[in-house]
Design brief:
single chain; alpha/beta; Rossmann fold; six-stranded mixed beta sheet; 31% helix
Amino acid sequence: MKLMEDRIRQDGRIREGGVLKVDSFLNHQMDVELFNEIGKEFLRLFGDCAVTKILTIEASGIGIACVSAQFFHVPVIFAKKNKTRNIAGDVYTSKVESFTHGKVYDIIVSKEFLHPEDRVLLIDDFLANGSALQGLIKLVEDAGATLVGAGICIEKAFQPGGDLIRSMGVRVESLARIKSMSVEDGVTFC
């Protein structure tokens, strides 16, 4: 998606350690007009998949998933990183290692909201090592639901996550695929 690539070039900031900061428009301050275009593009890509639920992980994926869900006319479920009193009863759970935070989280979704008849689209802001998507995929599988694919805003194609998830037979559609990036040379797209 040229719009996403242009926005990364314009407002993205590369930091040492393979970090791309897009917090001015994607995952801290949110450009809702951009999110509308993202939602339209995900609908174009997955609109024929009979999606019944969109699943993401807290926190950065929630805004993108919510705006996208308006185009699909389906609810959003977000996997929580901590069990709270709000979630009563049985839950699906999985482990996720955060590239950004260098921490392992137990993610959970209430069994009340994810069912075998659901057709689930995963949405997230980044795909790097694939841990978040693997965790979300496990939740969908544990529910006996059908995974229709994953919509990703930015994929770091130079990291193993995209190849790993695709090798699992999952359809991954990334709006911007980064081939390489460095503080000195900037970003190169696939």
